[in-house]
Each structure stands twice: as structure tokens, then as C-alpha cells.
Fold:
Amino acid sequence: MSFESRALETGTGGFAVETERGRPRPAEVFAAGLRHHHLANTAYPIAHRRTIWAHRRPVEEHARLLVQSLTHSPEVSLYVHVPFCERRCAFCEYTVLDRHDAALEAAYFAALKTQLARLTEGLGLAGKRLRGLDLGGGTPSLVEPARLGEIVAWVLARLRPAPGFGMSIETTPKIAALAPARLAAYRAFGIERISLGLQTVSAGLLHAYGREVQQVDHNRRAVENIRAAGFRTLNVDLMYGFARQGLDDWAESLRAAVALGPEVITLYRMRYKGTRVEGEAAEAALSQAVAMAELAGRTLAEAGYHAPPGKNAYVRSARDPGTSAYLTSRVVESVPYLGLGLGAQTFTNHLLAYNHGAATKQLEPYLRALDAGELGIQDLYHLPPSEGMAKMISVSFYFGAVRLDTFQRRFGVALEERFPAEVEFVLGRGLMERAGSALRLTAAGAQSFPGVIALFYSAAVQRHLLGLEGG
Ligand code: SF4
Structure:
């Protein structure tokens, strides 16, 4: 057993001054992150078979490891994945099914309930408090509202909400425009935040990527219905960094989002990996994405929306983190999160797991595993500290910053002690700065985000990046 594994088995102590052996030099890793900017992002880790496969554990150990990993966590957050969509957009990286009918929906929600019951009753989760619950997808609003209400009720009957608990759901402009009764139902379940997946209003892009062209009227009516239903927070999602997207296209989408008057506008950079248009990645230059991010910053600031460098959620109120309670708890406090449903991910700082379907996007293995009395998990990795830290830091970069106090609390060592060369590198080059109890990206660091985030990856993942052909 390695030193790191021993430290993990015995808790967080014991590796305060131990640094991971054989870490490549920061300057080389930084350059590799920039070179492979489509891979170096918050979706950590990459290339599982080459990087973290040695930490994969057999299915018979899943329950024991989950229980052990959650023992000292009084709180968790929960994500419920609903994989149904009207059609699959070519740019989508998520686990989405092409088909959807009532029978499939019924089978899927029965499986979700089975998985939830196994996790809560079988693994002792029932005593924990719930920080946040997200219903995402896919398109959760495509299914019968009663099914979602039942899942919400099941969760809340098993996990007591913690102070600050909140629920969020995703929808599309079309459904929000045409099915206002669904929105009212979500409010009745207690959901107070809703996310509208606008992505782009460019007709050219929508056609090119097989997504229905949204009617401007749909967008306006969707927001009217959301406001009428009484949601506290409306978020609008936009995507940028497509190979086929020009700055004019992007400016048009930004203006359209601002015109809808949401509390939050969240910008997602196109990641290509796992999409049907992965082959276009090489044509989407980092400089183009940086120019789009800068245009967004200026346009949104003029409209009264702000975000610190590197954070992708722009808000009008400084009191609003812009993200759901689920994501906020993950990023700010590194609260363990559990994924329910096809391909969903679980992370506890020491353990990373993916439900069946994450790689194959097939539903049947997930249903079969639950029928067979399993937890529905396909791959579970018992992480050494270097991998747990890299994952925690990668998640933190959703906010463009790593909380130093959270890192110390979760891993029992200061970030500067564990990553001395990397911290010296980012501070010395003006890529990050200390801001209160956080290490935060500067404007220059935000422009070089893929290089900065790669610095904190494990040596195994860094070596993988360094070994790839130039991109
Ligand atoms: S981008 Fe959204 S609507 Fe399109 S397939 Fe993916 S989850 Fe579904």
C-alpha cells in the first residue's frame, strides 16, 4: 500500500509535508494545458483507463467504500439525472437518450427510486443533512411533473434539509413557453430556482448542430411563465467557443439573454469531448474562446451582470452566488455529492464513482444493475490524496478560485504546502492572487485557465497531457 493510500485509509492526517513524487515541472504542465485546452478543464479526471484505472475497485466493495468515505460527512448534496431529451443536440456532452416514451419513463423513475432507497437506507445516508438538490439532464421538464414531484418527496422524506438548502431544475424555452402548468407544479414541490437552456440564438448554429430553432416568442413567453410561477431565481445558460461561431453570433446571444432579464447568466465554454462534433475541436482556437469570454464580460457588465475572473455565473446581486445550492456547496465547501440516475457522478473527496451509462450512454445496464440488487455504479475509484485534491480543485475552478480553508479542512494540509512549486508559479506569473481565504484567478489567469487548472492535476494526469500530440 502506498503512503497516500495509507493516509486515506486512516483519515486525513499524516501527509502534511509529503508531496506527490515525480510531478512534472509547472512550466511544462502549464504549456501542455494551454496546448490541450479542450481537455484541461473542470471535467476532471481525463482518460480514466490511462490515468486512474489502478484505483478502480470491484463492485463487491462499492457499498463498504461509500459508507467509509461518507462516515465523517454530516452533509451531502444530491443530483438527479433525467436523461430524456426531444432530440440529441450534436454539441451535447451529457448522458442523453434518443428515445423517450411513457413506459421508459416509468421504468427509469422506478430505478431512480430503487437507487435512492439503496443509498439512503443501505448506506446510512438517512442521518445526513441535504445541502442542495438539482434535477438536471437531459431535460427533466420533459417528463410528467408528478414523477419529479415523487422523487423530490422521496428525497426529502429520507434526507433532512440543512440550513440554506435549495432545489433547482433545468428546462428548455419551448417547454417553459408551452407548458406553464409544469412550472407551477415545480414551484409546488418547493423548487425555487430554474435554469433555462438557451445556449445560443444563432439560427445558423442551431441548424448546424441539429437543435430546434427557438422562436423568439418562445423565449419571451418562457420567461413570462417562469415569472408568473414565482421562481425566486431564473438562470439562463449560454454556450460559446464553437468552431463555427463568430463574435457577431455570440454578441447576438448575449443580447438575447440580457433582454430576458434573468437573475443569472451562466456561460459554458464548448468542451467537444464526448459530443458528436468532437472532430471540430481542433478548429476552435483558445484565442477565439478568450475573445468571446472577454466580449461577454464587457457586454454583461454594461447590462449590470458581474462575475470575478474565471467564474462563469454572472449575477446582478453580489449576494447571489449565481449557482444552485447543490453546486455552491460542492464548490465552496467541497460537500460530498451523490449522483442518482444514468451516468451520474458521485464524489466524496476520497472516492469518485460513475453510475452505469456514463461512458456507453446506454440505459439497460443501469436498469439491470439495480434489478440485480446493486447500487447502479459502474466505475468506482478509491482515490489517493493526489487525485482527490486534483478533483476538488478542478471543481473549485467553477468559481475561478480555490478556497484555502476548505482545502485544509478536507485534506489536512495547506494547499501551499502540498503544491509549493505550482503556487509559486501562479503567484509569480500573476495568474492567481490571494483574496481573503481563497487563491483566485486574475484576469490574466482566466485567459490562461486551461494551463492554470492543469497545474493542480495529479502527476498521472499531467503526464498523460504531456504525452499527447501537440494540438
Ligand atoms: S444540449 Fe440540452 S437539450 Fe440538447 S441534448 Fe444535451 S441536454 Fe438535451
User: Anything to note?
Assistant: DSSP finds 21 helices and 14 strands in the chain. The longest strand covers residues 160-171. Confidence is low (pLDDT under 50) at residues 1-18.
